[in-house]
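Render this sequence as a predicted structure.
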Amino acid sequence: MRRPLLWSRIKSEAGGNGATKLRFLGVLGAVSAYPFIIASIALSPWFNFCENALSDLGNVALNGSVAVVYNAGMVASGLIVAAFGTALSIKHPSWKYLVWSLPLAVAGFDLALIGVFPEDAGAVHGQVSVVFFASIAAVTLLYSYASWPLGTPRVGAASLALGIASPLVWFFDWPWRGVAIQETITSAFAAVWLVMVSLSNA
């Protein structure tokens, strides 16, 4: 009798450690881009939140080697988020997770593409950027739908609010020319959501 009990305990502890690592991966994906963005802003004295887009920081022709820092942050963060979404889908292969974890993995990959195709790459940069912000809003709404079966209705309510607020940010007529503030607000929404979900579901 001892061996089965011991084996069950080992499996339980391994699962717990795996859950901790998965939570860490999700939180890391949520925050990992920000040190790169902050460093890029610090190294770009010309940058103005009211006049520029965050993507200007990744424009190689405009920002030289500093652009590599910004773009590396997008790629790293995107791949981490994609890895989190993929790992979560493998760990929990039920519709309650897959309905939002697989789209999250796709959104993470799209975020990485923003760094692969920086602003001076042409129209493709704008396309992957729009897809990223739209997909993140969609993922939060999908999570709110699945939150009751998951047993996380409070996180679901927050997800619904963030999923509605994110696109609304882009429809207001703001008194400044740039979009860096809107990008910062919506990316912060996404980061807060990902932290909540990582701690609740991993």
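Summary. Residues 55 and 119 are 6 Å apart (CA to CA). Helices lie at 2-31, 33-42, 60-91, 95-116, 123-150, 153-171, 180-201.
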